[in-house]
User: Fold DNA-directed primase/polymerase protein from Adineta ricciae.
Amino acid sequence: MSFVENLFKDLYQEKLLTYRVSDLLIILSNDKSKDNYICISIETNLNTRRFCYLTLDELLNIYQLCPVSERCFYELISSEQHVKPYIDFEYYIDYNPDIRDSRIGAISCLKILHLLFDFNMKYNYTQSDNIDFVLDKFLALEASTSHKISYHFIHVNGQFIFENNQTFGLFFKGTIHFFLRIIAIHKCDSFNLDQSFEKCTISDLIDLLGESVPVLRTCCTKCYVYSKFITISELAYLLVLNKDNQYTLAIDLCVYSNNQQFRMFDCVKKHKQNPLVISSSFVSTQSVTHSYKEILKYSLLTYHESKDVSLLCQKNNQFAYEHSNHRDQTTHEICELINLNKLNDHMINFYANVSNCKKTSNHSRSNGSSCLISTIDMNIDSMDLSMKEIVSFIEKIITNDPSHLGYIRSCIHGNRNPNVIFFNIGGEYRFCPRLNRHHKRNTTAIFVDLISHKFTIRCKDPDCKNTNLIWHKIE
Assistant:
């Protein structure tokens, strides 16, 4: 048993660590005071996760007793919890040697979020490296190393929160699409793409812009998106090269899923020595004036003390506010760049939204998921009833999470055992049973035994190949 598990056993015997997320959620569903709890997962020495729930004071107590090197904690974000806006910004330094200042792309993220959540018509927006007024609304955390840039930006003291992680994910993906399209349609002496961009996915736009990224960064420093607050050049730093030498987003769009586990403040990943701490590159009022407990509190995505906030929801494929009784309903309608009406119109007119999409392009990118539903390349009508039920069952699994929509890429019988069918899954469904989460790049297959009608999910990551196959009954 690990140090942390023994610590929990000694302190909170009544809150035994569970092995499955579902068990924890069942426990909390029977507790009327569950809103006061913070759900966390703990990475163990066996590379598995244990789950529990704590109050803020209990969590702080654990922090004080547990050394940072043993503090492998992640905040569990379920679909039942409201969430603050946040961003996970990261890229590998070795694959992007032309990026001399890692702050540029990160500042673009902060400016985008500011325009969305804290825009003030009275402020004189000018091009400037001084973003102190933006940082006042954000907690900036960092876990960068000599090989990787890694920032977490969390919006604090805001006037509204999102109904759940998936809704914010759809909202933010639509916003990213909005800005990528702005880059694509803008024209200047150095850049001019003469084609239509209607219904392009995020991946499509990344592909179209990839070859022009160096030009956009160096030549579009005077191409302003809004007043003189943000430029095309700055936005181009949101696109970075991955290990396959392909352009992708520096923003991880895979974190906006149900039961997401997000690394917590001043914690490490197992066998790593770079805790997620206050960023020295983005110093805000919160990091200077607040106590350790206050920073921990602000860093929690699902912890909210103020009741006087509005809730941003998705209803009938449209984003809308549910206003508190005390808040002026015009508060959020002053932004002239992106208000909800404009974002909803953009989603309908230009964005291949997951809620109404029928099929996908032939490929997708891990950080650029948009429309990812496709039909299996088989004649469904010719299948027997049993096979149709299996296909329907598989499709229900891989389309259950809007942030990780998948499709059946191919289907083949086993060579050694023809009673086993292998469903190769495409799109963003990359669930790994060993990690209990989705991979960013490695794909997934689902095995179905036609005799027992049992299935298992198998990750195609070589490091996970020895995972024991756990079969579940199809019901």
User: Anything to note?
Assistant: Confidence is low (pLDDT under 50) at residues 326-337, 353-383, 466-470. The first strand starts at residue 38 and ends at 43.
